[in-house]
């Protein structure tokens, strides 16, 4: 079975059955609703039947622009069942961010909620491809273009589930933001489900009775792959929470819902670590077996905190929007080395390349590349074939990340290709400097960038936020610089340390060093639509 929508709703393991809970939805007031695999299948079939009324020879893009609701899952899977391309957008996108994405891949149908309808109505005249705006919260259709989602979900649309979907048929659209230009539309196919399921089984090693929670927004590749497709395709019960992050509420959810597998971001873990003495001592987290991290390299301080305070091992994972699924990870059965993002998964062949395209020596920093051919490798950037082709060299996908590998085959993230700082001919990893500064008791978060310098080519700039109860002073700045000098090297010591109120990050927790760098240099910030809200 190739179609991802069918795989997620009709390939339930025989020992579970369609009456098994697929999704336990937790509202903001912590009340819960349960949706079985049978319910998920039925509701997504209605969405598919509705969309099948409007056939097209070309890929049609169906967008979901909505806050977190349980209906998102049925809409997304129904769109895939129907043969359309599904794309979930962050609900905090404004008009410019929406138009940037719609200009790349014009929408045929947009699903939204009533509070967001007005924002989309303003764009109608600029979206000639848009056939329908389907709104949750409308009792009845307002016109041929304004349709009620509630009405669609209560109807009985005819839909044949035996239609064969080629594995190469486009299925999922994600967007990536660069420092310049419009976001690129990253296109994945139905055959990607092979990587989604295999990587989930290999890394998370779920058992039938597990309760799984992926905290990533479904609009992010992590939230789509590991918050929708992988757990459903493997017949696992997952929970989702409609509210915003709150360390105390999240910890209580883990306890009360008996979560066994947690997939989250280092940012979340760092925020939780601030409260380690106040929240966790009275909670029963005995059901929680493992924690997994994604979005940026796992800081050793947080790794130690997980074992010391929670008594849980945290496993780092690495993948990208373009790879579609986890490529390198720490997981049970693989020895963990502090600071390493792990070893490659089965059938994944990474290589560290020099600028000349040769394979780097053990311990040498180079470009992280992956041998092409895994099922979830993206099939293209929409209408940007030159940009797509530029990502490949001699049968390898060039990730844009710098890394190194040790003699045991463990991979270590160094930074983005454009983030590593070249100071006096020495390469300095922002991540390494950030790690050392985070070890100081006064520092809550930190972001490190390089800035032009007449003498050294680039100088090291550190932006820090302080923990509650600590104040900024010149002596603290000196302390930070000396500490980095001792922990990393004198060449890595920041030339400047700047106190800020927050460190800009995207929704997956990655530090937006471009924003920090451009702000420091007085340059335009570029695309900020995916920035984490504060």
The average pLDDT value, as a whole number, equals 90
Most strands sheet: 9 strands, mixed
CATH architecture of the largest domain: 3-Layer(aba) Sandwich
Distance between the termini: 42 Å
**CATH homology superfamily of the largest domain:** ANL, N-terminal domain
Q: How many structural domains in the coordinates?
A: 3
Question: What brief labels describe this structure?
Answer:
single chain, 534 residues, alpha/beta, Rossmann fold, GMP Synthetase, Chain A, domain 3, nine-stranded mixed β-sheet, five-stranded parallel β-sheet, 15 helices, 28% helix, 25% strand
Please outline what is shown here.
With 534 residues, the protein is an alpha/beta fold. Strand 1 (21-26) and strand 2 (32-36) form a beta hairpin. It has 3 domains: 33-189, Rossmann fold (3-Layer(aba) Sandwich), CATH 3.40.50; 245-416, Rossmann fold, CATH 3.40.50; 421-521, 2-Layer Sandwich (GMP Synthetase, Chain A, domain 3), CATH 3.30.300.
């Amino acid at each position: 079975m190739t179609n991802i929508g069918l795989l997620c709703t009709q390939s339930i393991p025989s020992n579970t059955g369609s009456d098994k809970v697929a999704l336990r939805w937790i509202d903001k007031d912590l009340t819960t609703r349960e949706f079985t695999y049978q319910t998920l299948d039925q509701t997504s079939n209605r969405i598919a039947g509705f969309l099948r009324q409007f056939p097209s020879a070309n890929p049609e893009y169906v967008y979901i622009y909505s806050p977190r609701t349980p209906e998102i899952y049925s809409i997304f899977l129904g769109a895939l069942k129907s043969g359309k391309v599904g794309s979930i957008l962050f609900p905090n996108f404004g008009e410019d961010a929406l138009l940037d994405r719609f200009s790349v891949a014009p929408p045929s149908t947009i699903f939204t909620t009533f509070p967001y309808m007005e924002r989309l109505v303003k764009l109608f005249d600029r979206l000639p491809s848009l056939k329908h705006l389907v709104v949750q919260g409308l009792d009845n259709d307002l016109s041929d273009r304004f349709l009620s989602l509630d009405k669609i979900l209560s109807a009985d649309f005819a839909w044949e589930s035996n239609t064969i979907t080629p594995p190469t048929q486009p299925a999922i659209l994600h967007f990536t933001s660069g420092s310049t230009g419009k976001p690129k539309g990253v296109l994945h196919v139905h055959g990607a489900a092979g990587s989604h399921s295999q990587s989930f089984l290999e890394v998370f090693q779920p058992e039938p009775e597990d309760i799984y929670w992926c905290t990533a927004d479904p609009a992010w590749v992590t939230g789509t792959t590991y918050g929708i497709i992988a757990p459903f395709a493997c017949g696992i019960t997952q929970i989702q929470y409609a509210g915003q992050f709150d360390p105390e509420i999240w910890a209580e959810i883990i306890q009360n819902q008996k979560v066994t597998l947690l997939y989250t971001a280092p940012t979340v873990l760092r925020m939780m670590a601030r409260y380690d003495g106040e929240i966790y001592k009275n909670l029963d987290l005995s059901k929680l077996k493992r924690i997994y991290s994604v979005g940026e390299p796992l800081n050793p301080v947080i790794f130690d905190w997980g074992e010391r305070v929670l008594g849980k091992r945290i496993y780092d994972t690495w993948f990208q929007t373009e790879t579609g699924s986890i490529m390198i990870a720490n997981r049970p059965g693989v020895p963990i080395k502090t600071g390493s993002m792990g070893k490659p998964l089965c059938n994944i062949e990474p290589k560290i390349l020099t600028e000349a395209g040769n394979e780097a020596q053990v311990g040498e920093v180079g470009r992280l590349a992956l041998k092409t051919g895994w099922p979830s490798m993206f099939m293209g950037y929409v209408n940007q074939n030159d940009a797509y082709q530029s990502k490949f060299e001699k049968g390898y996908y060039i990730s844009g990340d710098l890394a190194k590998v040790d003699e045991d085959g463990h991979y270590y993230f160094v930074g983005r290709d454009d983030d590593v700082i070249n100071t006096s001919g020495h390469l300095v990893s922002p991540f390494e400097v950030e790690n050392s500064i985070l070890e100081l008791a006064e520092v809550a978060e930190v972001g490190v960038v390089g800035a032009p310098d007449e003498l050294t080519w680039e100088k090291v700039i550190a932006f820090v936020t302080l923990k509650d109860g600590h104040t900024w002073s010149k002596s603290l700045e000196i302390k930070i610089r000396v500490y980095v000098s001792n922990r990393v090297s004198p060449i890595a010591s920041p030339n400047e340390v700047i106190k800020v109120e927050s460190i800009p990050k995207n929704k997956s927790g990655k530090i937006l060093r471009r924003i920090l760098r451009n702000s420091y240099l007085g340059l335009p910030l570029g695309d900020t639509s995916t920035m984490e809200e504060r």
